[in-house]
Amino acid sequence: MIKTSNLALASLAALLVGCASVPPRQAAVPAPASAHPKQLYQMSPQEADAYIAQMQQAEPDLRKRIAAIGRRNIGQPYKLNLLGEYPFELHDTLPTFSLEQSDCVVFAEHTYAMALSRNWKEFYWMLQRIRYKDGVIGVATRNHYTEQDWNINNGWLVTDMTRELAGGTAASYPLRVDRQRFLKTYHKTDAALPVQDSTEYYLPKERIGEVLGQLQDGDFVNIVSTRDGAFWVSHVGLVVTAPDGKRMFLNSAEPQVREESFDQFFARTAEREARNAAEGKNGQKLAGFKFLRLNDHIVVPPALPQPRP
Questions:
Q1: How far is 51 from 114, CA to CA, in rounded Å?
Q2: How far apart are CA 223 and CA 105, in angstroms?
Q3: Where is 7: in which H helix or E strand?
Q4: Which of 85, 192, 217, 259 would staple 89 via disulfide (CB 3.0–4.6 Å)?
Q5: What is the mean pLDDT of each run of 10 residues along the chain (309 residues)?
Q6: Which CATH architecture has domain 6-30+45-294?
Q7: pTM for this one?
Q8: What sign for the dihedral angle of Cα 135, 89, 77, 231?
Q9: Where are the domains of the chain?
Q10: Which residues contact 261 (CB under 8 A, 6 or more apart)?
């Protein structure tokens, strides 16, 4: 069993409250015609409100709407750890949403929330429903850990299909999450939460070519990395389909949101790993992928009541 060492805790913390490697790390298909010529990250909330409503009319297919909205944010500047709970909570001064910037998790959450909504008010509510367990805003209920929080608590939205895609050759890793320690260490928040152990399955990177043709627009991609024997999801993004049918990876990574082929993603990763090796750094390495299928029939569960002091 892997113990939650300081290294592993820091690795998971940096990814799951933002989205980057630890240490910190770091041509689009046109969207349907819109009254707003700007990219989403250039819009005001008022303009985004009108754009969300327009997209509901312009693209009735949810998968295609997710792809179009995500592509409308290509070029959005990347910033790690940019959201918090302020002013609802005072452990930091970070806001609960951002149109101007994103990290990988923020990009995916905002894209899903906009695609599922008809206006700004619905978007903001949907964003919190995706971002927090049961939609209850708070640092202790935020979906910090991709495998054990985000993927599980958003089971109404996506379903892990990794083992189905991998068949009998899926690889696995043990994951131990100590939320109580994490919250105390990184957010100065006391919460009596038990340590949780799980077995996580992933598709080894060498087999990606065998499954790409089965992926669909709007599917959720988890990038699994490894270092010093520990494995964790270090990055996330969305699947979109190019006009020629090629599956692409739409994601927010330094320096901005981009759409790239999985071959291009492999090349970027290999370059980073080679650079780390040349500099004598013990950097993370790509291990494989988890794939979560956007559910065909989405019923958004109501949020639980926000607790009162």
A1: 9
A2: 12
A3: helix 6-16
A4: 85
A5: 42 45 39 65 98 98 98 98 94 96 98 98 98 97 98 98 94 98 95 97 97 98 97 98 98 98 98 96 97 97 93
A6: Orthogonal Bundle (1.10)
A7: 0.89
A8: negative
A9: 6-30+45-294
A10: 246, 248, 249
